[in-house]
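Sample entry follows:

_____
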Amino acid sequence: MKTAHARESSIAFGAIAIVLAACSPSPSFDDGSGGDWTGSGSTDLGSGAASGNGGDAATPTSGPGGDGDGDGGAPATSSSSSIGSTSVSAVSTGTGAECTVDADCYDAVPCTDDTCGPLGTCERVAVTPGLEGNPGEGSCPSGVCQIDGSCGLQVYSHPFGDPSGTWSRQALSELWGAGANHPPSTGIAEVEYLRSFEGLVVFTADGTLYRRNPDGTWAPALPAGEVFAGLPEQAVRCSYSIQFDEKSPTTQLTLTALEGGLQSAYIYTVEDFGVAPEPAAGNPYPVTNEDGQGSPPPDSEPCRWSFPEQTAFTGTASWVVIWQGQGMNTYLLDGGNFIWTNFGEESGSPVWDAVGEGPAQGTTVAAWLEDGVVYLIAP
C-alpha cells in the first residue's frame, strides 16, 4: 500500500483556497480483482458481478484507452457502429401486422424505423446508433439513438489544439461500449480522465460513480459518496485532476459540488485504484467567483463542465491550465500566474476550435481531455 506524500501548500483557484494537507496512510480497499475501489466505508457493491447495465462479460471499448495501452486511438466517429468486438447493425424485426401506410406501424419508439412493407405487413428495423430516429414518431427529443434502442446523449470529440482537426460524434453508448458495468447514456453529471492511471471516472446525476480501467473494462458501479468520503450525493458538477510529480502517480482530484445553489470544492488525494481516495482535512472549500478581469462574474451560473490541461513536466511556466464552462462562456484559469481569460461564447473558444459542428451553445454537460483529444457530452 502506498502512502500519500506529505505536503503543505496553497493553490488559488478563483477564490478557492485549496490546502493540500499532510496525508496519513489510507486503508487498502483492494478487492483482489485488480485494485477496484470498493468505497471509503464498509459497503462493497460486488467486486466481480455485473451491475446489470451491461452484458454478461466486460468487453474493452473502442473509445479512449480501450486497447489497454492508453493511447486512446483516433477520435470517435459517427460512421461506425462497431463497439469493441460487438457489431451493431440494423436487424429486421417485422411485426407482421397488416397495414396500408407506414403510420399504421408506428410504435411510439423513435429508435425503430417502422414501415408498411410491400406485402401489406409492418416491418420494423432498429435505427443505427447515432441517428436521431424516426421523424414520423418524433425522433429522439434530446439526443440520438443508442445501441440498446433507447434515446440518449452523444459525445463530440476532436484533436485539441489543432484547428485543422475535424469534429466527430457518436452515440454515447458506443463510446462506453457493450461490456458489463458501463455508465448510462443519460444523466451524466461529470467525467474526468486521471492521466497518471490512464483511467476514467464518470459521475451521474443520481450520485453513482463509474470507473473505466486502463484496459477499457468498467469496474462495478458504486455510490460516489461511498468512495469519496463526505461528498454529497447527486451534486458533482465539475472536476479537475493534477499530478504533482512525474515519477509518482499520486493525483489530486478536485470535485465541485452544487448544494442549495452554492458551489463547494471537495479535494481528494488518489494514490492508486486499490486505495480509497484520501479527503483533504478542510473539505469542503467554498467556491466564489471573483470580480476580476477575465474571471467568471460573481453572479454567473455555476460551473457546467471543466477539464485540466496539464502542461507540467514539459518545461512550460503555466504548469496546468483549467478550462471550464459557466453560463454560455468558456473560461481559462492559468495555474502559473492564476490569471483568468474569458473567451466569450463557447462556440468561439479554443475548446470548440475544429472543422465541422460541435455541441450546440450551452448544452454540454461534461468534458474531458484524454491523450490529446477533447470529448464533450451533449444532446
